[in-house]
Amino acid sequence: MVELINEAHANGCRKFKACEELNISQRTYQRWSKGGTVKEDQRPLVERPEPKNKLTEAERKVIVEVSNSKEFADLPVSQIVPKLASQGKYIASESTFYRVLDEKKMNTHRAKSKEPVKRETPTHIATAPNQVWTWDITWLNAMIKGSFFKLYLIVDMFSRMIVAYEVWETENAEYSKRLIRKAYLSQGIASKDKPLVLHSDNGSPMKAATFLATLEKLGVQSSFSRPRVSNDNPYSESLFKTMKYRPVYPNKGFKDLNEAREWVAEFVRWYNHQHLHSGIKFLSPYQRHYGLDIEIMKKRNETYLKAKAKHPERWSGDIRDWTLPEYVTLNPMDTAEVDNYLNQQSS
């Protein structure tokens, strides 16, 4: 490698560029060629002596035998090592036990209980409004300590628009059924070819049998977050934070249900029509939901182009990017995953 770098440098190539091509750092090259000679004993491919602390085959065999003994066969390594220590025995560290058993393909679930299930991350992609909705219930403070009103709210994932909401005093599956019917009819999506996806967490109103039956009747596909993973419903959670961190949010609580409903109605009007959402290039959710965004972005782009043409010396690069995202994902996905998902949906 040193000879190749020296040859490239002699032909006019910068040394750091040659090092990048060979996937080594410039500091490594300097260390290898210190004093003008190649230090072969410092090369990474040189044959090195075995480390002094390496386990012998006999010691590795003891780890396997102890782990499979009648006393420890049903215990995980995290319990085997402490038990051995209590008996005055030390064979190897816990990490070494894991490494040896893993090499022997024996590092498996060792108890009678079911092996933990790794749940797949829920994934949905919206390329237009009314393809994926997310919904949740949040508690609104009442003036009486310990009392709360419950806000049921559905938001469109693509446009971030609130498509339906209700405020009640309790959590109830009947209110959930009313909410989804209200949203479904208001958006006029009964004739959609593909089923609408409704994503939520695992609360009892979301998983009630009567509510799920209503979704099935409407042709809505239910989707749920992983248990105890709040990040799987980010759009609803983010909306609730926006609401409760508003300067006008009544932190001391609402005096009654009517006041709570009036305040929420005003918030929804502001959020849908006036709030410029950073996730959709500072458009209002209403503009994005009903296709007004194309003309708005076209006008913004033209405005910036005119400004740059008027004073090009004030622009060091391109104008601000006003391109709208083509899709929105429930959880982060790379481009290959998105393409694969969309291909499956279209097939």
TrEMBL record:
What are the boundaries of the region Disordered?
Answer: 33-52
The alphabetized list of GO BP terms reads: DNA integration
Q: Where is the Integrase catalytic domain?
A: 125-293
InterPro entries, per database record:
Integrase_cat-core, RNaseH-like_sf, RNaseH_sf, Transpos_IS3, Transposase_IS3/IS150/IS904
Spell out the Gene3D superfamilies in the cross-references. Answer: Ribonuclease H-like superfamily/Ribonuclease H (3.30.420.10)
Biased region (Basic and acidic residues) positions are 37-52
A GO molecular function for this record? nucleic acid binding
- What PROSITE patterns does this protein map onto? INTEGRASE
NCBIfam families xref list: transpos_IS3
Q: What name has this protein been given in UniProt? A: Transposase
**Source species:** Halanaerobium congolense
